[in-house]
Amino acid sequence: xxxxxxxxxxxxxxxxxxxxxxxxxxxxxxxxxxxxxxxxxxxxxxxxxxxxxxxxxxxxxxxxxxxxxxxxxxxxxxxxxxxxxxxxxxxxxxxxxxxxxxxxxxxxxxxxxxxxxxxxxxxxxxxxxxxxxxxxxxxxxxxxxxxxxxxxxxxxxxxxxxxxxxxxxxxxxxxxxxxxxxxxxxxxxxxxxxxxxxxxxxxxxxxxxxxxxxxxxxxxxxxxxxxxxxxxxxxxxxxxxxxxxxxxxxxxxxxxxxxxxxxxxxxxxxxxxxxxxxxxxxxxxxxxxxxxxxxxxxxxxxxxxxxxxxxxxxxxxxxxxxxxxxxxxxxxxxxxxxxxxxxxxxxxxxxxxxxxxxxxxxxxxxxxxxxxxxxxxxxxxxxxxxxxxxxxxxxxxxxxxxxxxxxxxxxxxxxxxxxxxxxxxxxxxxxxxxxxxxxxxxxxxxxxxxxxx
Length: 453
Known about the structure:
Blueprint: H1 5-9, E1 33-36, E2 39-42, E3 50-57, E4 73-81, E5 84-92, H2 96-102, E6 123-127, E7 130-134, E8 141-143, E9 149-152, E10 168-169, E11 176-181, E12 188-193, E13 199-205, E14 217-218, E15 222-227, E16 230-232, H3 234-238, E17 245-247, E18 254-259, E19 268-271, E20 276-286, E21 289-297, E22 314-321, E23 326-333, E24 337-341, E25 353-360, E26 364-372, E27 377-381, E28 387-388, E29 393-396, E30 404-412, E31 417-424, E32 434-437, E33 448-452
Antiparallel strand pairs: 1-5, 2-32, 3-4, 3-33, 4-5, 6-7, 7-8, 8-9, 10-11, 11-12, 12-13, 14-15, 15-18, 16-17, 18-19, 20-21, 21-22, 22-23, 24-25, 25-26, 26-27, 28-30, 29-30, 30-31, 31-32
């Protein structure tokens, strides 16, 4: 299969047996498991104590034209304690849609239902003492660390509308910032919580149309919205495709900057060249300007006839001059890559290092990159030829920005099982300090985080 993510996110007329996101390690697993006393090669660091959480789609009874982004949510958890891998478990997020398909009882719904509710299949975060499984749209699902679904979570009725799958947790203050978009007006809402997880602010932001705004940027003082040319299109649904979005050349790409302490829509919009961004690496204040490092695509969600554009996803630095109303763009790495991460203690603040997953043209995903954006260098952590890594999740263990471990769920195609690689971030190109054998397959998913014990 082609490993270009552009090809995976487009709506295509495909039967389940021919659909690349239903085959190989993109394909779903059929059961929930709990596995104990996991085999470890090497030595798990004592400092690594807690639970690695991973999220992704695991569709039940997928239909023709199935899209990777809409599969039923499944969480995976690997618990570490005292230098041991205690157990692995996987559980579906208990949604009403899942109950209709396989009979697993749905968790309680929020008091005020939304028109469209996601499956909790994109990301899983820990904030304010809660584990939240997040969708592209809809309310989050509150989970526990054993992956039982407790309920749809709407901040005790304070949240009106969807919650993004990509909140930003300020690495210094612990506040969590997020937004939610919709396909009908109001198209965008911005929200902020305090460090204890109480929702403190919600602001409606005016947009000219509904767009797929998957992620955003946040600094110590500002937030950055990305209004890009992937626009909601209900005709796509009528044509039998599950993702109602399409690239629109007529939609002006722009960035919107707003102070974090604003209480009303004070966004200043700045036009940029057409592109799409699923994921920023990080954003931070640089005097009056903003530095925002992103993985940038030329186009996504295009029609089958539009195939002449350059594919791939490069790591790019945007320098946003808010007062001057301009954005300068510079390529940091021309490698094909995705799923960028930083040390979470540096979220919203100046960073030097970033970690990404290689996109491989033959097997889907490859190894891992460590970018030193200060010195302009890149290191590569290779995996065996029959293996494919997953999103690099940084677990800090000291004060230095790269003092800690990278955790990556790696798929071994030959054995048809997955493992967790534990990589010393300061010795990135070396062999892992430990490999945890899971003895089961974890499908390629999206995002995760580490919850300290």
